[in-house]
Amino acid sequence: MQEPFDPAKVDADLEVARPVRTGFLPITTNWFDRVFVGIYLFVALELFWMRFLEQSIPLMVCHVLAISLGVLIVWRG
Amino acid sequence: MRPNTVGWLMLAPTIAILGIFGIIPFIYVLYVSFHQWNPFGASPDMIYNGANNFRRLVFDAEFLTSIAFTMKFAFFAVLSEIALGYLLAQLFMKEFPGRGFFRTIHTLPLIVAPIVVGSVWRLMTTPSIGIIPYLLKSWFGYDLNIGRDATAAFALTVIMDIWHWTPLVTLTLLAALLALPKEPFEQAQIDGANRRQIFWHVTLPMIRPAILATVFIRLMDALRTVDEVWMLTSGGPGAATRFVGLHIWKIVFPKTDYGYGAAISVIVLYLTLVMCWLLYVALVARRERKRTF
């Protein structure tokens, strides 16, 4: 027989599925927040580099820095 | 069947619609933004050009100016709409004769299409035939001509947006105010709080989610305004009201530069999300953290 629907159980499942924690970022985050911040900083850094630094330093350096920053934020943020 | 599966099944129609009309077009625009594509030109094929469209836009003075004007427009319009909307919501909370009538009539601008709002305001502000230049001239001696006065043109676009969208803010905040429980207000009055203290320490924190949701909706709308401004000023005089939506339109349609237009669209979406996220962090997330620790 089908188990009756219990909203409290769904909420409990959601709490398990989305753990939150605090790292060096000034807000409480879950993994999605950190990926989000990582991608946004990646794009901002790439645009800044293209505008001001690309003439003297190749964009590949920016790729490496931006990806490292993204990994750091997801890992420790 | 597990409860989660039921939840996913119930969400499936929404996810399908979001995917077909939101996510797939977004991925396509992202794809186009990395290409040079002029489908009506001599070479209609898409040519991959890496990040060149993005490299071009960070040096594009017209684009950067349009972003600055759009931010300025969004700031003044949204701030005024929230302030005015809140005052009107408070007014509609009070008992006065004809309250139901005024509550209904104040929402009328919402049902007018933006293109019609732009046309009506264009008629009202045309120097030779418009009522607004006529009244300003006869009452204050001020000669309003949005065809040559950049500041007046910009101010009028903001005023038009306020006229059109304040009722939405009023309705949202009115619903939030009506849903508030009476007990905290009674308790604050018993404790001797004055009206200003009640506003800052009771009302505002309790309607914060509604204000935040309204700010997000209006901010996103203000950043992609096209039709009203196109009808009122066509982006002029000069580039004084050439907001980013108009800039994209001019790049994509008259110039048929689809790749560059797609790149600008992606960056505008990026800026919109960043601004909303920063607002969320500033107004909600930090406060929650303070409460937690």
Describe, in plain words, how this protein is organized in 3D.
The complex is a heterodimer of chains A (77) and B (293). By secondary structure, chain A is mainly alpha-helical. Chain A contains 3 helices and no strands. The mean pLDDT of chain A is 80. In chain B, helix 1 crosses helix 12, helix 3 (61-93) packs across helix 7 and helix 9 (195-223) packs antiparallel against helix 12 (258-292). Chain B has a two-stranded antiparallel sheet with strand order 1-2. Chain B contains 12 helices and 2 strands, in the order αββααααααααααα. The radius of gyration of chain B is 23 Å and the shape is globular. The mean pLDDT of chain B is 90. Chain A binds chain B through residues 2, 5-6, 9-10, 13, 22, 26-28, 36, 40, 43-44, 46-47, 50-51, 54, 59, and chain B through 1, 3-4, 6-7, 51, 54-55, 58-59, 267, 270, 273-274, 277, 281, 285-286, 288-289, 292.
Q: Helix and strand succession of chain A?
A: HHH
The first-to-last residue Cα distance of chain A is 45 Å
Residue share in helices of chain A?
55-70%
- Poorly predicted regions of chain A are none
> What count of structural domains of chain B?
1
Q: Cα-atom Rg of chain A, whole angstroms?
A: 19 Å
Strands of chain A, count: 0
What percentage of the residues of chain A does DSSP assign to strands (E)?
A: under 5%
Side by side, the strands of the main sheet of chain B go 1-2
Share in β-strands of chain B:
under 5%
Helix and strand run of chain B: HEEHHHHHHHHHHH
Number of helices of chain B: 12
Count of beta strands of chain B:
2
Shape of chain B: globular
Which range best describes the helical content of chain B: under 10%, 10-25%, 25-40%, 40-55%, 55-70% or over 70%? over 70%
Structural class of chain B: mainly alpha
